[in-house]
């Protein structure tokens, strides 16, 4: 029998397969599971379990700004500009959200 916590998690957790590697993306705010208003600006954490990643990445997600505004502000515009696979995965749930890596180098 499956535990109720596995069927209805207390915290948001996503298992990811990015570029053929398995990883976990999770949040520590349980309101993300039930209150859409808390999806304005929130924090997620990413851990790949790979040797190259020495610490869990802390990400700030802003669902009300636009990724092209972030690119203009940081001088990242231009054709062929690659976005990390993790950002693209996050945008499948929160379309157009900006992702701040908070000082961590983005994983490609």
Any key phrases for this structure?
single chain; protease; alpha+beta; 19% helix; 3 helices; globular; hydrolase; five-stranded antiparallel beta sheet; cysteine-type deubiquitinase activity; 108 residues
Compact summary:
It catalyses: Thiol-dependent hydrolysis of ester, thioester, amide, peptide and isopeptide bonds formed by the C-terminal Gly of ubiquitin (a 76-residue protein attached to proteins as an intracellular targeting signal). By secondary structure, the chain is of the alpha+beta class.
Structure description:
With 108 residues, the protein is α+β, with helices and mostly antiparallel strands. The protein has one domain (4-100). Helix content is 19%, strand content 26%. It contains three helices and five strands; from the N terminus they run H-E-E-E-E-H-H-E. The chain starts with a helix and ends in an 8-residue tail after the last strand. InterPro entries: MINDY-3/4_CD, MINY3/4. Its EC number is 3.4.19.12. It catalyses: Thiol-dependent hydrolysis of ester, thioester, amide, peptide and isopeptide bonds formed by the C-terminal Gly of ubiquitin (a 76-residue protein attached to proteins as an intracellular targeting signal).
Instruction: Please count the beta strands (DSSP E, at least 2 residues each).
Output: 5
Q: Mind summarizing the main beta sheet?
A: 5 strands, antiparallel
Low-confidence stretches: none
- Measured between the Cα atoms of the first and last residue, the distance is 38 Å
Shape: globular
Strand proportion, as a percent range, falls in: 25-35%
Spatial extent as radius of gyration: 15 Å
Helix content: 10-25%
Structural class: alpha+beta
**Count of distinct structural domains:** 1
Which sequence of SSEs, written as H and E, runs from N to C? Answer: HEEEEHHE
- Taking all residues together, what is the mean pLDDT? 82
How many helices? The count is 3
Strand arrangement, major sheet? 1-2-3-4-5
GO molecular function, one term: K48-linked deubiquitinase activity
Catalytic activity: Thiol-dependent hydrolysis of ester, thioester, amide, peptide and isopeptide bonds formed by the C-terminal Gly of ubiquitin (a 76-residue protein attached to proteins as an intracellular targeting signal)
EC number: 3.4.19.12
Family: Belongs to the MINDY deubiquitinase family. FAM188 subfamily.
């Amino acid at each position: 029998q499956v535990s109720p916590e596995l069927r209805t998690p207390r915290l948001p957790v996503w298992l990811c397969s990015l570029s053929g590697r398995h990883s976990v993306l999770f949040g520590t705010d349980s309101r993300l599971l039930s209150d859409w208003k808390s999806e304005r600006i929130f924090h997620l954490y990413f851990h790949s379990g790979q040797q190259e990643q020495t610490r869990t990445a802390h990400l700030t997600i802003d669902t009300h700004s636009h990724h092209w505004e972030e690119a203009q502000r940081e001088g990242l515009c231009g054709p062929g500009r690659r976005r990390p696979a993790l950002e693209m995965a996050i945008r499948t749930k929160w379309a157009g959200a900006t992702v701040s890596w908070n000082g961590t180098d983005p994983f490609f």
